[in-house]
């Protein structure tokens, strides 16, 4: 566990060799940025004798070496016949380390050199070529001895193995370039012959050849192939760092020792792993790829045939699954098929399983009316602290609502109050009622088998996944119908939102039932939703607009464009989606479609509807009537990648407080995999016991 943020489990991390202080890669980067806010958030404890820790003197450490995890994964998949989705061609390639290069050493070294004013590689080209050849001819000579002969050409700080590593990388790149040029035709002919001969073993087992020569070899490859040269008599070339760290500079006078230099190298690798300016492009796009219409149509048709026993339909051109029977125990099977494509879902009638009297506004006001809470003005986003009873008094009585100086009725929102452990402590009866009523419990329940968060050990501080109570007035009584009760934002985790109560306000200035239906019908609604609106047994509460994660960049660009048109200041680091500062009204949605080709999935949430959204999905909500909604987050295997990238992106933002504390994606992943391995081990032991008997 990281000693700084206390939120991250890790394999590769940084360690103080004196006191054993450990930090994760994110905290290391935060310290390296030297942001005042980072220092405040990630305070580092002192070393021995009260000395502060210098991140430059920490040692990179890897708990599980090399490809052990990949080897174990492929072994288990082969043993139990589990389908593989990775890019490895077969197990043999994993064992021999045939991976495509990820971090070019040449680029890494160049970044280190550009970053440090103390390192200068000014050796002439002829001597650069000869430097790495000396240790090859004499295995007992250290690389430092070669560098020391050129002390007149470089300042003392450059007399280090980094000099030798850089020359080796340059020479290796030149040799590979020359070799590829000479044998390009021969390789092409050989590959064509292997492809033509399906029985050839090389056609199945030969590793893929990287076509990107500019990347060079990986840092791990370079260190493992040269570890024997860096230490006299070394035979353990499989451990990249151990032989290197046992050495210092040969002269003992240089200020830059081997650990300092490798710190710079690996810090550069880490720093370039996820560029901050590209984080938003990495996350949401990675999974939410739009399927061709023909493919999507054939998939939904196949699901209709395979799951004919599950009452369901499709909304928004078959982008959203509607499960009509909340009681059907097989709902999760059809949901799982759609969920892997990042498709949202709606489950109707959930309120029928709940004790609805617990969720009425009067009941909640009676139990918690004396509490203080923050109220959000949905129009201007101003937050004020007030007695909760004032909010609930105006929930269905317009005359008791707050008004502006101009006499306009204010649309207030009581957001996420209570939430998480507070919800469980303050509302135990409602908490139990919610748990037994959650739709798709295999996913949405905190202990659901497909909810990876359920695998966290009991001694862990649980991530804040809810439930949360979200209550807000409707816009039916407001003059401005272009404001949202929840502005456009992206979900970091998977979430289910249940509409448990709809309060139809009474008083002057509100729309009639016919007027509200007309407002709904002005939207671009699916025929199924229009039919539900005309059903007298259905009570509409909120209007949802959902966008595919792949459109996040287009929407961000569009909102920045609108901001400039309205004369608003647009800062380079400003993200209108992260700030949740926009509700995209009907005119803007039309422009978004015409100018950027971004379609909106429009939903009407009726009483008892549970809307399930995947991590990375963008959405906004507008309550027409006053609504009480309960949300519960969960972490599914299908969208863990999105959650990981989104939390990493949030952590890179200076204004975000340590987001890993809220979701703990790495902890969840680690313990979920550990639990799976344990289950497979138990199964293996049981099979062996049966065979022995």
UniProtKB/TrEMBL annotation:
Residues 137-151 have a biased composition (Low complexity). Residues 124-136, 200-218 have a biased composition (Polar residues). Signal peptide: none annotated. Its main location: nucleus. Residues 124-162, 186-218, 281-303 are annotated as: Disordered. Its cofactor is Fe(2+). Keywords: Chromatin regulator, Dioxygenase, Iron, Isopeptide bond, Metal-binding, Nucleus, Oxidoreductase, Phosphoprotein, Transcription, Transcription regulation, Ubl conjugation, Zinc, Zinc-finger. Residues 427-651 form the JmjC domain. Pfam families: JmjC. GO terms for cellular component: chromatin; histone deacetylase complex. GO terms for biological process: regulation of transcription by RNA polymerase II. Residues 284-299 have a biased composition (Basic and acidic residues). It comes from the Eukaryota. It is found in: Nucleus. PROSITE patterns: JMJC (PS51184). GO terms for molecular function: chromatin DNA binding; dioxygenase activity; histone H3K9 demethylase activity; transcription coregulator activity; zinc ion binding. SMART domains: JmjC (SM00558). InterPro entries: JmjC_dom, LSDs-like. Belongs to the JHDM2 histone demethylase family. Probable histone demethylase that specifically demethylates 'Lys-9' of histone H3, thereby playing a central role in histone code. Demethylation of Lys residue generates formaldehyde and succinate. May be involved in hormone-dependent transcriptional activation, by participating in recruitment to androgen-receptor target genes. This is Probable JmjC domain-containing histone demethylation protein 2C.
């Amino acid at each position: 566990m990281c000693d700084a943020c206390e939120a991250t489990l890790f394999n590769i991390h940084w360690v103080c060799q004196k006191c054993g202080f450990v930090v994760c890669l994110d905290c290391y980067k935060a310290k390296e940025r030297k942001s005042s806010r980072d220092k405040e958030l990630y305070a580092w404890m002192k070393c021995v004798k009260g000395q502060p820790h210098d991140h430059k003197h920490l040692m990179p450490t890897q708990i599980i070496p090399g490809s052990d995890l990949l080897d174990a994964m492929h072994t288990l998949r082969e043993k139990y016949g589990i389908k593989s989705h990775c890019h490895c061609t077969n197990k043999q390639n994993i064992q021999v380390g045939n991976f495509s290069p990820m971090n070019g050493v040449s680029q890494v070294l160049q970044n280190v050199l550009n970053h440090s004013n103390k390192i200068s590689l000014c050796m002439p080209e002829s001597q650069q070529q000869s430097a790495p050849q000396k240790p090859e001819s004499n295995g007992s000579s250290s690389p430092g001895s070669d560098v020391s002969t050129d002390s007149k050409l470089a300042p003392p700080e450059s007399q280090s193995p980094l000099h030798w590593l850089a020359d080796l990388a340059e020479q290796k790149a030149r040799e590979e370039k020359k070799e590829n040029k000479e044998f390009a035709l021969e390789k092409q002919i050989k590959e064509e012959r292997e492809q033509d001969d399906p029985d050839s073993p090389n056609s199945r087992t030969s590793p893929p050849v990287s076509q990107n020569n500019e990347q060079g070899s990986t840092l791990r490859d370079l260190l493992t192939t040269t570890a024997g040269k860096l230490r006299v008599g070394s035979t353990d070339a499989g451990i990249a760092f151990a032989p290197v760290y046992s050495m210092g500079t040969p002269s003992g006078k240089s200020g830059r020792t081997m650990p300092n230099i490798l710190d710079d190298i690996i810090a550069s690798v880490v720093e370039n792993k996820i560029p901050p300016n590209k984080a938003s492009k990495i996350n949401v796009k990675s999974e939410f790829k739009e399927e061709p219409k023909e493919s999507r149509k054939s998939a939904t048709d196949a699901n209709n045939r395979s799951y004919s026993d599950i009452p369901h339909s499709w909304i928004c051109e078959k982008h959203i699954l509607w499960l009509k029977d909340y009681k059907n125990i097989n709902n999760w099977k059809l949901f799982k098929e759609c969920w892997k494509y990042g498709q949202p879902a709606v489950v109707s009638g959930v309120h029928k399983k709940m004790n609805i009297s617990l969720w009425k506004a009067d009941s909640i006001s009676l139990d918690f009316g004396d509490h203080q809470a923050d109220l959000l003005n949905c129009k201007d986003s101003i937050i004020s602290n007030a007695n909760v009873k004032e909010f609930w008094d105006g929930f269905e009585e317009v005359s008791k609502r707050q008004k502006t100086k101009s006499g306009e009725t204010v649309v207030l929102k009581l957001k996420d109050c209570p939430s998480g452990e507070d919800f469980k402590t303050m509302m135990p009866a409602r908490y139990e009622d919610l748990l037994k009523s959650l739709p798709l419990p295999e996913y949405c329940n905190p202990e659901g088998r497909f909810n990876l968060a359920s695998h966290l050990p009991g001694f862990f501080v649980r991530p804040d996944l809810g439930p949360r109570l979200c209550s807000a007035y409707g816009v039916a009584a407001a003059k401005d119908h272009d404001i949202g009760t929840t502005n456009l934002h992206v979900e970091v985790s998977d979430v289910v939102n249940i509409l448990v109560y709809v309060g139809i306000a009474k008083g002057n200035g509100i729309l009639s039932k016919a007027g509200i239906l007309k407002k709904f019908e002005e939207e671009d609604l699916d025929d199924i939703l229009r039919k539900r609106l005309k059903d007298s047994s259905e009570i509409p509460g909120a209007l949802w607009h959902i966008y595919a994660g792949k459109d996040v960049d287009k929407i961000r660009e569009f909102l920045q464009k609108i901001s400039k048109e309205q004369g608003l200041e647009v800062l380079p680091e400003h993200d209108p989606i992260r700030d949740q500062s926009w509700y995209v009204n009907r005119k803007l949605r039309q422009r978004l479609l015409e100018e950027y080709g971004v379609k909106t999935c429009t939903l009407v949430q009726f009483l008892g509807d549970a809307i399930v959204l995947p991590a990375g999905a963008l959405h906004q909500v507008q309550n027409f009537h006053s609504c009480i909604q309960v949300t519960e987050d969960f972490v599914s295997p299908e969208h863990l990648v999105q959650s990981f990238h989104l939390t990493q992106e949030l952590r890179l933002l200076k204004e975000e407080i340590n987001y890993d504390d809220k979701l703990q994606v790495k902890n969840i992943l680690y313990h979920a995999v550990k639990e799976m391995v344990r289950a497979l081990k138990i199964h293996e032991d049981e099979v062996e016991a049966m065979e022995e008997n």
